[in-house]
Specification:
single chain; 352 residues; 5-stranded antiparallel β-sheet; 4-stranded antiparallel β-sheet; 1 helix
Length: 352
């Protein structure tokens, strides 16, 4: 059986702790990715000044010698999550410690020009002022790029419509503690999933004009639910990552029962599916490493590789989105928090 090996191409020390990586899917921009950072500033009394961060825009090119260069940086509130819009692929959604979501536009005169920047297009606060300060924790776009989900530290979930502006459609209390993650179903446009620090996995129907309706709930996770992946290539499949270190597989129509699971180590903060080979899913296991799992035809999940260069905490990971550019190699970017480490690695098949 084939195993997987990670070959480090480039490493970079960020100025601040790094927690988020996203490769750009925009045509002609497959060599670009963003890295988000989060710096806690001791002695600051204002919650808005206490957590600061940056969005770092990088270019990676292999050429004869792999090249990793920072093109632009945005100084802002601390970044907790980022995702490129799947349709308007030059737009980047960002969840911030100031309790807002922002959308940035990739700008530059030419594909090969080094003057590529990120310009803020809009921002929207999640919670009303009277609720006090909350942190925006995660976000997700629907498949058409017309809706945006954002979760926050109060346990609430926010649904926006997007058409170059953000229009709030719903805000509802989904969890008793932090709502760590939320995701649109890729198989039912009316369903969204949420995961929280209360160990709950929930499914909501968002068609109700007043407030989304809780349609299903799972209480069997052994710790907080931290990541979700609605698997596009296989109907009705949902994967969850959890603080207990397990990745679980569910049928979206019956999330009360787990179909399969794979034990990893360290808490699964993020899961990213390989756009070239979607059954391979890279997992950021916070207190251990980055683990690669594979979803098999028999609805089994198996670990097939790991990347252990990072020390503490493994937060951000993503695959290069080069599906049609002629790039033969497969690359991933990974980042970790306290060691302020950003890595770009080639993923290759080996043999056990």
């Amino acid at each position: 059986m084939a195993a997987v090996v990670f070959r480090t191409c480039r490493t970079h020390k960020t100025d601040q702790p790094a927690d988020s990586v996203e490769w750009c899917p925009h045509p002609g921009r497959a060599d670009l990715f963003v890295c988000g950072t989060y710096q806690l500033r001791e002695g600051e009394s204002s919650p808005y000044d206490k957590r600061r961060g940056t969005i770092l825009l990088f270019r990676f090119r292999e050429d004869d010698e792999p090249l990793l260069e920072e093109l632009h940086r945005v100084e802002r509130s601390a970044v907790l999550d980022q995702k490129w819009n799947p349709t308007h692929t030059d737009r980047l959604g960002v969840a911030g410690s100031d309790g807002s979501v922002a959308v940035y536009k990739l700008a530059g005169p030419d594909v090969d020009d080094l003057e590529v920047t990120l310009e803020q297009e809009l921002t929207e606060r999640l919670s009303p002022e009277e609720e006090g300060h909350t942190l925006a924790l995660s976000l997700d776009w629907n498949g058409g790029g017309t809706r945006l989900l954002a979760t926050d530290s109060s346990g609430s979930v926010n649904l926006f419509g997007y058409d170059r502006t953000l229009e709030r459609l719903h805000r509802w209390k989904a969890h008793d503690f932090e709502a760590w993650t939320a995701a649109f179903s890729r198989h039912n446009a009316h369903i969204v999933y949420t995961g929280g620090d209360d160990s709950m996995l929930c499914a909501y129907d968002v068609r109700c004009p007043d407030e989304p309706v809780l349609s299903q709930r799972n209480k069997k996770h052994e710790a907080g639910v931290t990541s979700l992946l609605s698997y596009v290539q296989r109907e009705h499949i949902l994967l969850t990552g959890c603080y207990d270190g397990k990745v679980r597989l569910f049928d979206e129509r019956r999330i009360g029962a787990c179909l399969a699971e794979v034990p990893l180590i360290g808490g699964v903060w993020r899961m990213r599916s390989n756009p070239r080979d979607p059954k391979r899913i890279l997992c950021a296991c916070m207190y251990e490493n980055f683990s690669l799992i594979e979803l098999r035809d028999e609805l089994e999940v198996a670990k097939i590789g790991e990347y252990g260069l990072h020390e503490n905490i493994c937060y951000g990971c993503d695959w290069q989105q080069a599906t049609d550019t002629g790039v033969a190699k497969t690359y991933v970017a990974t980042c970790s928090f306290y060691d302020k480490m950003l890595c770009v690695s080639e993923v290759v098949n080996g043999f056990e």
